[in-house]
Design a protein that fits this description.
Layout lengths: L1 E9 L4 H13 L4 E6 L3 E3 L10 E10 L3 H14 L14 E7 L4 E2 L4 E2 L8 H10 L11 H7 L6 E2 L1
Antiparallel strand pairs: 1-4, 1-5, 2-4, 3-4, 3-8, 6-7
Length: 158
Amino acid sequence: MTRCFIGLGSNLENPAGQLRSALDDIHALPRTTLENCSSFYTSAPIGPGEQPDYVNAVAQLETALAPNELLDALQAIEQRHGRERSVRWGARTLDLDILLFGSEIIDTTRLTVPHPRMAERNFVLEPLAELTPELQLPDGRDLATLLRQCPPNRLHKL
């Protein structure tokens, strides 16, 4: 089993409800245990045009799925929630990102882990720190340092 962390985000169609439903779907994944989930946070959108604020969280899993199997499963959950990928960083019903997958560093055309922009996103780092404040990333960076260096983004715990 591998410990991994998944970022959850939504800013359309009852975002908090989308996250709760996605957590139910993650809980039902085969060979995977949903160990914990952070509080929900609201954050300002990053992306084009006018968008509603996001609701974000981080889930901690233990999984026997391979990284690409987990990615496929998470993308299937996004699709069931009506995710459309028409505009990069656009508004969305559900976004599920593999932030960390054990101590692995993955860099393929489909998947990059640790998530390449997590150090810039307090809506990822703050909930991650809530779950595991002493975390060190596979590349040696520690979460506390990343949090101190991260730009603010109107983050509020719900």
